Amino acid sequence: MKILLVDDHRILLDGLRFLIESQPEISQVDTAFTVEEALERINNEIPDLIISDISIPEIGGIALAQKVKSKSPGTKLIFLSMHEEPYRVKEALATGAEGYVLKKAAHEELLKALREVADGGMYFSAEIQKILIQRMRFPEDERILTDREKEVLRLIFDEFSNKEIGEKLFISERTVETHRKNIYQKTKTNTLVGLLKFALENNLVGGMP
Known about the structure:
It is built from 10 helices and 6 strands. It is of the alpha/beta class and 209 residues long. It has a 6-stranded parallel β-sheet, with helices on both faces. The longest helix has 15 residues, at 173-187. The mean pLDDT is 86.
């Protein structure tokens, strides 16, 4: 796998390059300090995956992602950013990026995101998942979640088991399983990350915090 790292902080960039180059499945890691430099490298050789900051000179990581996805839709992209504002996350993921990892996360999380995205999945830091789920709103159509389903969803995200959810909501474990099934059927997915993707694609995540 060929990877391009884009960030204007040299120390961080060098550290990430060393970390990723140590992984056996990685064949090449290039770096760029600006969007213009990144685009020049992409024109010379299209990478399999790009890991980019959002706040990079001159036009920013969002514009870079848009250009990359336009030129090479098959290229995967993970944003590595300090920003966790909902509107900024939504803007970033609207480019078609497959991942969003916070810079404060441990190196192991970035490697996990890299593997997940490389295998065709998506990856969001836990804080990003929580922010987006909390800001979800559902239209008045066949996909709407009931108040109870929304309660169950919040507890699912907080990693409570079906039994624990039942105890907290004073309902049976079987009823929780039914609510969980209904949540995923209505959103046409079967994972929380899939649920977030659905919400972003259907403009179901609120704007400004």
